[in-house]
Task: structure prediction
Amino acid sequence: MTRILMLSHGHPSFSIGGAEVASYNLHKGLNTLDGVESHYLARVGPPIARHRDTPFMSLRQKERETLFYANDYDYFRLSNRDLEALTGDFERFVADVKPDVVHFHHFLGFGMEAIRAVKRAAPAAPIVVTLHEYLSICNNHGQMVKSKNHALCSRSSPAECNVCFADISPAQFMRRELFIKSFFAECDAFISPSQFLLERYAAWGLPREKLHMFENGLDGGQPAPPRPAPRDGRRNRFGYFGQLTPFKGAKVLVEAVGRVPAEVWGEDSTLNIFGGNLEVQPEAYQQEFKRLMQQAGRRVRFFGSYKSADLPQLMREIDWVVVPSTWWENSPVVIQEAFFHGRPIITSDIGGMAEKVQHGVDGLHFRASSAESLVDRLVEAIRAPALWGKLRARIRPPVTAEAAAAQHLELYGQLLARRQAKPAAGRRRLAAVAAAS
Result:
């Protein structure tokens, strides 16, 4: 029996983000394989209240799913200030699980120190880290976007990061980088769901031989059938699925919809927005988004947030999924979900989005952050009814959770074999020295 301990910075029951969904799908996929037992440990914080005597809780989750309360976190150093909880409760939990492999799907909340805590509690277990964004490289929410003018950033350095954050000295940024890399040096493998992100981390200094590109697995349920074709054949129902943050590009999308000529848009074209968290965004962003919504009028319908279980039903009314993010992205789960349901994608032409969606094959690209460029793609989608069917026919099914689990299990096996080979090689060297003497 191979026992895996999967750590995530959130549980999908409380935090629906791409990384949380990806980690949970992998956990479920691993538990479908013979000879594998996966345990899932997810960090939680406010508004969930901590138990008085322990940071661990279950809150009626499934078997082998545990929640770990952590809320004393240094976001600059990615560090957990509550070291007592890590060296005490956390290490005891890891030792009790007795994992053969420990897989961090994120260290947010847990802190980089959790890596060393695992080394103490389970010294024989290889440690794997999945990289979901550029948080270790970039202090601006891991977006690799300049903090002042929101321009895309191609690389980090202490001096360049100081330009974005004038109150943090280059020396502090250098210490941050060395601090994070000191923990990463103790990890056995890093997984990136996109080649683009992998190359960024290789350029930052992670050993290329430790980097592996595995796509996240999807547990999508039943695919939604296509929307019944209208008489005129126009495929003019667009959908946005995701968080409403400044980096996700919803503002660019609403602005573009408002600019499409009336004779092209017609009376039956619509953009349905399924997204949440607008209320926690900066006030200026909220006001600008609401202004653009009013300007677009009946062209845009806002439905608020949704749950993963709702997606098949929501997709029934959608022809195109638009992914307009203004940062590099990695491997947005919405791309996998759209392809699973057979919906072509209109997306920004950068980062993992451009890697996952092939222009003119299974979707369309537009110039990132450009509402005018997006207008051209929307017009093309509406005016060329045959285009939708051509792109849909070329969509490749996304990787399933079970297939992703099998791929990960193969890597785990290689790491375990490598670990077991080292002591044997050491014993052979000692024997050879003894024989020679």
